[in-house]
Amino acid sequence: MDNKPRCKWCNTKNSRYVEYHDNEWGKPQFTDQHLYEMLILESFQAGLSWECVLNKRKHFRKAYDDFDLEKIIAYDEAKIQELLTNKDIIRNKRKILASITNSKIFKSVVEEFGSFYQYLQSFAQDSIIYETDKTTNHLSDAISQDLQRRGMKFVGSIIIYSYLQAIGIIYSHEKECFLYRQG
What is the pTM (predicted TM-score) of this model? Predict the structure, then answer.
């Protein structure tokens, strides 16, 4: 492991976490496929650590059909039971059911706005927010409230803030981190 300074939250003993921190977190990635996968994964983080979710990411991809939106929308009771017994993912029934509902809503948002990125930009207005040491802000509050109004679950302001950090709309590498930059 190199000795580069990283954000305090990054467990440098976990190579998967270091790889995520260095090469994915905070980097703009706005395809619907990526935005969808990250939204589903972030919703599973509620009450847990991101490291826990990240360590199970490859298992989630397999269990959730590589995050194929159309397949997930069509999940039936048999598939739900399969997910509930899959020891390699987070087996929270409320989160699993929410992931299916949230998928249907994600699709309707894409149909309404043309892409999920365009939906996010209706709030962010093409800006990247540079800030650290926060867990919510006006943007995460607004998006969270709108997604909840549309019927999504496990998308509170803290989860949405983490999501916006992960996809690069909020840039939050800490001052001590080798990736830090100001807007």
Answer: 0.96
